[in-house]
UniProtKB/TrEMBL annotation:
Region (Disordered): 401-431
UniProt biased composition (Basic and acidic residues): 401-421
Organism: Roseovarius atlanticus
Top-rank taxon: Bacteria
Keywords, sorted A to Z: Membrane, Transmembrane, Transmembrane helix
Coiled-coil intervals: none
Positions of transmembrane segments: 26-48, 60-83, 95-117, 350-369
Name of the protein: DUF4407 domain-containing protein
């Protein structure tokens, strides 16, 4: 069993502990300065973040932002200074858990009062531009959907033209006598021409909408192009946001107009009226047999009319049932809110903003681990193993001074009264 006085492992541990203490003493010479620099840097970015939230740019707003940033810097410096000193010094598990909980609570408070503002200062403009770009995409989808529905409605014009053409062909057949057997422009002919005229008027209304739809879509694309350019133009994003908001209002009006240009409701109502509102002319045949043929033909025409009307109504209802263009509303947003809303797109900025505030936590853990190593290396070590050469020399000098100091004596009967009083004063006894 090795002699504890000359145990080389214990002596080596004490030497390592002294080395670690020397490193800590050297690091402490600039640790406070480094912590102050981090606190000031966080305060500067906090000031920029607070300034972006204040609408007023007057003296009071500037003073308020400055006061808040100074308070944040002081709070960060004091908080981490406490932990850098106290956390490595505690030895019990209960105390360490308590300080760890305090450090976690303080870190959350620092993130709440500083880190998100730092992120707003680092990536606020980019986040607002991201918001503008997302809004442009939403408006583009809404415009394209409204245009698609409008074009689908315009396609009903071909169905109307086909039905109109069928009635015109039937009327031509009636004029030559191939339908009811009575040539001429009689009652059957007038019924067919009446409905073909109604369908022709409907077809003309649909055709009038086409240029309006094309014009609105072209103008909407022009506005979208300008909005896209505003998202990437240089310069302050606040000024660009104002122009972007104006363009968004104009584009929203065009999308609403395009929704109103769809002809599906018009075709649906016309199809319902096509079979419901038929003005039957007087049968004009000279013979009863001829009038019977006309009545039978008109009945057949009305059946065909009802079928064609049902087909048009179903087609119009299919168009009306299409999913409408989504409602899009542009809401201006501050840089701080934009950073929070699009946080997933700015992870590096968030990481940098949080790291500048919570980096001292790493220093706290480093010091705690190092002090724990020093205590474990010195556990069970005698004081002789931990003394440095300078401390040993000082101890020897004190020992020599104690040896050279004469021992106090008691007064004797041979001493004069003055000698007795002097001895009493030296020994501390009351004269």
């Amino acid at each position: 069993m090795p002699d504890p006085v000359t145990d080389p492992s214990r002596t080596r541990g004490a030497r390592y502990a002294r080395d670690l203490e020397g490193h800590i003493e050297w690091l402490e010479t600039f640790s406070g300065t480094a912590l102050g620099v981090l606190a000031v840097a966080s305060g500067i970015y906090t000031y920029l973040g607070v300034s972006s939230l204040l609408d007023d740019t007057g003296v009071m707003s500037t003073f308020a932002a400055l006061a808040y940033s100074v308070a944040v810097s002081v709070g960060i410096f004091v908080f981490w200074s406490y932990l850098l000193r106290l956390f490595p010094a505690v030895t019990t598990a209960r105390a360490r858990v308590g300080l760890l909980g305090t450090m976690g609570l303080g870190s959350v408070a620092i993130i709440a009062m500083s880190s998100w503002l730092n992120a707003a200062a680092l990536a606020g403009s980019a986040a607002v531009e991201q918001h503008l770009a997302e809004t442009v995409q939403d408006y583009q989808q809404s415009l394209e959907r409204a245009h698609e529905i409008a074009l689908t409605g315009q396609a009903l014009g071909r169905d109307v033209a086909r039905v109109r053409q069928s009635f015109e062909d039937l009327s031509e057949q009636e004029a030559t006598g191939n339908l009811s057997g009575l040539a001429g422009r009689g009652a059957v002919f007038r019924v067919l021409r009446q409905k073909s005229a109604e369908l022709a008027a409907l077809e003309a209304q649909i055709a009038e909408q086409t240029p309006l739809v094309d014009t609105a879509f072209a103008e909407g694309n022009t506005i979208l192009s300008r909005m896209r350019s505003l998202t990437v133009e240089p310069g302050p994003v606040e000024a660009r946001s104002v122009e972007f908001s104006e363009a968004a209002v104009r584009l929203q009006g065009l999308i609403t107009q395009m929704r109103q240009l769809t002809v599906a409701p018009l075709v649906e109502r016309a199809a319902q009226d096509l079979s419901a509102s038929v003005v039957l002319p007087e049968l004009d045949s000279r013979t009863a047999e001829g009038r019977g043929d006309q009545a039978a033909t008109i009945t057949s025409v009305l059946e065909v009319l009802g079928q064609r009307a049902a087909t048009l109504e179903n087609a119009a209802q299919e168009v009306a049932a299409l999913e409408p263009a989504p409602e899009v509303t542009y809401t201006p947003i501050s840089s701080a809110d934009a950073v929070i809303l699009y946080a997933r797109n700015f992870v590096p900025s968030w990481a940098g903003a949080i790291a500048i505030d919570l980096l001292p936590a790493v220093l706290v853990l480093i010091l705690s681990i190092t002090h724990g190593m020093i205590r474990s290396m010195r556990d069970g070590t005698d004081i002789e193993d931990t003394m440095t050469v300078a401390e040993l020399r000082a101890a020897i000098a004190v020992a020599h001074e104690i040896e050279d100091t004469p021992a106090p004596r008691k007064p004797t009967s041979e001493d004069t009264p003055e000698d007795r009083n002097k001895v009493k004063r030296i020994t501390g006894t009351t004269p």
